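Subject: Protein record for review, amino acid sequence with backbone structure tokens
How to read it: Take the token row as a discrete description of the fold.
Enclosed: The protein record, placed directly beneath this head.
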Amino acid sequence: MSLFHTDPAVLVLEDGTRFRGRAYGARGVTLGEVVFATGMTGYQETLTDPSYAGQIVLQTAPHIGNTGMNDEDPESRQIWVAGYIVRDPSRVVSNWRADESLDEALERDGIVGISGIDTRAVTRHIRSAGSMRGGIFSGDAAALDADEHRRLVLEAPLMAGQNLSAAVSVAAPEVTPATGERIGSLAVIDLGIKKATIDNLAARGFDVHVLPQDASIDDIRAIEPVGVFYSNGPGDPSASADHVELLRSVLDDRVPFFGICFGNQLLGRALGLGTYKLPFGHRGINQPVLDKQTGRVEITAHNHGFAVDAPLDEPFDSPQGYGRVEVSHIGLNDRVVEGLRALDIPAFSVQYHPEAAAGPHDANYLFDRFADLVRANLSTKEANA
């Protein structure tokens, strides 16, 4: 069936705003937080990023799907978005690497989507009113009356307060051997990790032990790690107290730590800082960030709706007693904290994605920075032995 002659569909926001379009992907009902992503490429990486669990993702780029979907580029084992919104889906797939169309992949994984709506109008509305719950209704559900649509949307859980780590994490440990010159074993707490992250860590010489999100400090110590890594992931960091307590045990052991995205927020909370929900978040692959250590401005890939609350300009004392800390990276669009560096213990984090499989690759050096931190820590331990 032509994408331009499909069933009707409607997007309904919690404030009652409605957008009528055409069904795309699976038919039915889906509910979640409606957010927009500004990347012009990399939609397959976006769809398979576990950090988008529970969210209905709108692509601001108008034309989506022309390169189809392939079996080589997924960032995880499935599509994680709760729903998908595009303006103009491609009528044909025109890339030699494609194994199926985007529409077919969405339908296979049961992802309810909508096409043919004014995505710019939705984006402007969210930018003004903030991210909010919404629902996509297609098939028989599209014919429900407006009050019923909104009632269902308002019954959906708010993103604030949700702990979604268990839904996206591995069930049992998985190990990827080092592909670079071996440094040692790395304990990775899987809060929604992406394949590109694992590949980058292995390339730096780590045997990457991906552990379930409910791993204990004893599980971590059992592999005698040279470092610990917290991945990206969905949900509200204030609802992840167990992960914060686990991280404090890691910091107490003085094991080098690196966190990205959700891992940055959890490091902030472990250090005793607060976190808060952004009005509409940062999602896309074109976000400018200042690395205060080098003075370099990087174009970076983001996917986060929460941020750390910390002083931007001067080092400060960790409220939790971990010594001095500084904000290492700052977002240049809105001066949001984009990275933390502990000055008295071996720990740092960034709020964005240095692996960025679809690009940009400006921040990929952070994996080298972590490997250098681990090597320096090992040298210090050997010298003091």
